C-alpha cells in the first residue's frame, strides 16, 4: 500500500508575485520578473520576423488573483529581504512577521528595529521587539538579554501599549531581572488596568501584586 507523503507547509506570505510559485524573480534587487502561470506568448521579432516567445513581465508587488505559495521558501525569503530596503514601514513589518514565523528571528528583529528608527511612536512594534528579546534570552541566545526586553517593554508602555506595563509590573513583583519593588509593580499594574487589559484588571481585583 503506497504511503502518503508529508504535506508541504509554506509560510503565510503576503500575496505578491515575488513570493508566488509562478513568479520568476532573480537578481540583486528583484523588483520585476516573469509570471509563468501560463505558457509563454509568441510574437515575431525583428525585421526578419523570427518567431520568439516571452512570459509576461510583472512587478514584485503585483498579484493577478491566481497566487500559489512559493515552493522555494528560501528563495522567497531571500527576495523579501532584498526588497525590504525599498518598502514602506508597514510592508517591512509584514516581511519581518513572515521571517519570524519561518524561524529567521534575528533577521526579523533587525528589520523591526530599523522600522522603529523611523516610526518610534509605534507601541505595537516596540512590544513585538520586546517579545523577541525576551523569548531569545529565555532560550539562551547570545546578545538577547532580559534587560533589553525590559527596556523595550518600558518603551511600549510609554507609547500606550496595554500588555507591556503588566509585564513590567510582573518583573518588579518577582524581582528577577530588576530589584523587587511592589510599589512600582502595582504602579505599572494600574497603568495596564486603566488601558483595559483583563489580566491586569483581574489582578487588581485580587488585591494587586504582593
Shape estimate: elongated
As a percent range, the share of strand residues is: 5-15%
- Let me know the number of strands: 5
- The helix-strand sequence is EEEEEHHHHHHHH
Q: Give the strand line-up of the largest sheet.
A: 1-2-5
The radius of gyration is 24 Å
Average pLDDT score: 82
| Tally of individual helices | 8
- Low-confidence segments, given as residue ranges, are 1-11
What separation lies between the terminal Cα atoms?
63 Å
Helix percentage: 40-55%
Protein model, in words:
It is a single chain. The protein has 210 residues and is mostly helical. The chain has a domain at 7-80. It has 8 helices and 5 strands; from the N terminus they run E-E-E-E-E-H-H-H-H-H-H-H-H. The protein has helices at residues 73-83, 89-101, 105-118, 123-138, 146-158, 164-174, 182-194, 198-205; strands at 23-24, 32-35, 41-45, 50-54, 57-59. It has a 3-stranded antiparallel beta sheet, with no helix packed on it. It has a two-stranded antiparallel ribbon with strand order 3-4. The chain is elongated. The model is unreliable at 1-11 (pLDDT under 50).
Task: Describe how the helices and strands are arranged.
Layout: E1 23-24, E2 32-35, E3 41-45, E4 50-54, E5 57-59, H1 73-83, H2 89-101, H3 105-118, H4 123-138, H5 146-158, H6 164-174, H7 182-194, H8 198-205
Antiparallel strand pairs: 1-2, 2-5, 3-4
Helix pairs in contact: 2-3, 3-4, 4-5, 5-6, 6-7, 7-8
